[in-house]
Amino acid sequence: MRTLCASTLIGEFFVIGFAGLVAMQTSGHSTATVWTVSGVAMLLCVLLCGVLTRPGGVQLGWALQVALIASGFVVGTMFFLGAVFAALWWASVHFGRKIDEAKARWAAMAEEGPQAGTAPGTA
């Protein structure tokens, strides 16, 4: 799960940076305000990559997704991009957990060793 979620977060890092450039030109907010908010969000993306496996890491990721969608009030395109990244986040969490479960089953089967001459994963 960690790899898929971290990939999504790094993609968001770049999207937030580019949205900051757009907001700086079109939003009417000061450059300092735009880059403070964008910088905090970008930093959160990077920090979340390291805490995904800790309690609350995935929930913080969901909070970031909500904030990304809400940034559409400043840059209209972010409503769409935020929804796309929220869907990617859901897919990363959902399928990442399935992959982790499959890896755990495979490791357990490998520890048991071959039974009756069959290799793990063959039936």
What percent of residues are in strands? under 5%
Q: How large, in whole angstroms, is the Cα Rg?
A: 20 Å
Largest sheet: none
Q: Name the helix and strand elements from N-terminus to C-terminus, one letter apiece.
A: HHHH
Count up the helices.
4
- The overall strand count is 0
First CA to last CA: what distance? 27 Å
- Which spans of ≥5 residues are poorly predicted at pLDDT below 50? none
Judged by helices, strands and strand pairing, the structural class is mainly alpha
Average predicted local confidence, pLDDT: 89
- The shape, in one word, is elongated
Helix content: over 70%
Describe the overall structure.
This protein has helices spanning 2-26, 31-51, 57-70, 77-112. The protein is an all-alpha fold and 123 residues long. The longest helix is centred in the C-terminal third of the chain and has 36 residues, at 77-112. It is elongated, with a radius of gyration of 20 Å.
Gist of the model:
The protein has helices at about 1-25, 30-50, 55-70, 75-110.
Summary keywords:
mainly alpha; 0% strand; 123 residues
Give a topology summary.
Layout: H1 2-26, H2 31-51, H3 57-70, H4 77-112
Helix pairs in contact: 1-2, 1-4, 2-3, 3-4
